[in-house]
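Can't paste images in this forum, so I'm doing it all in text. The chain is below; anyone willing to post the predicted structure tokens underneath?
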Amino acid sequence: MHRVAVLALDGVIPFELSIPSRIFATARGPAGEPLYEVLTCTLDGGPVRTAADFSIAAAHDADALATADTVVLPAASSHSAVTGPDDLPPGLLEALSRVRPGARTVSICVATFVLAAAGLLDDRPATTHWKHAERFAATFPRVRMDAGVLFVDDGDVLTSAGASSGVDLCLHLLRRDHGSEVANQVARSCVVPPWRDGGQAQYIEHPVPEPSTAGTAPTRAWALSRLGEPLQLADLARHAGMSRRTFTRRFRDEVGTSPGQWLTRQRIELARRLLETSDLPMDGVADRAGFGTAASFRRHLHAALGVSPHVYRRTFRATREEPARA
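Text version of the structure:
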């Protein structure tokens, strides 16, 4: 069973601390068996204060990191002030050195500052809460900060943006480990979307639009029901009753990405579900998801995920079926 160790540091924010347990402990295989074991630990096994008006007691100390397949570091209230290793709690660097090769290390929200101060993000891409991204980039110039995304997956080190982006990242890991079906089941159980459109741009403070301003949400819903059709920007703008220029501007303000990028992402997600859950040939998946041809579908999937449709189907269908054979 995949073991997740969640390291709570002094001042940990309760919401971020609860995300890994809520997401991973909910995941079940075909026979209802748990897919993850989640251990919450502190550096010395003793209680730690939270950012709220209570403390928590964990059943494990930092030794749990040495046996974990995934180590999660939730944000603490002081993390955004970290500028280097001297700002880290005593014993943390030694604890992080226990993470075994091949294990994943994950930060939630401003815990990215801690990973950067520990040297784990040097020359890697990462993200953090948009309010702190500019200062992070100035403090840790060796890290390739991307403030526009909800999370960054760099293989064995993953970082998320604001608090709820930790949910997005944990669901992404479920999808990576066990496919969309398991991730979607957990998302439904937690009453959260299995993925969110766009990036952090949609959450950055903007002037409030006039009440009479029409949004693009109805058109997005309309497009989602027609992904197999050759939708163009003009079609979307016409449905919204806007000019193409106005529609594109409002769409980007609301979603954080362009209509074309959003449409491609939705088609990729539909194609992933079809690859995992159906026996459609590649031409059929390409047609159902709106890519037109199998060649176009292959190009788009490889650009988004770095693998071919055949490799993706073989990997995730096998992963999804493995527990049933065990």
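The chain has two domains: 2-190, 212-326. Confidence is low (pLDDT under 50) at residues 204-213, 320-326.
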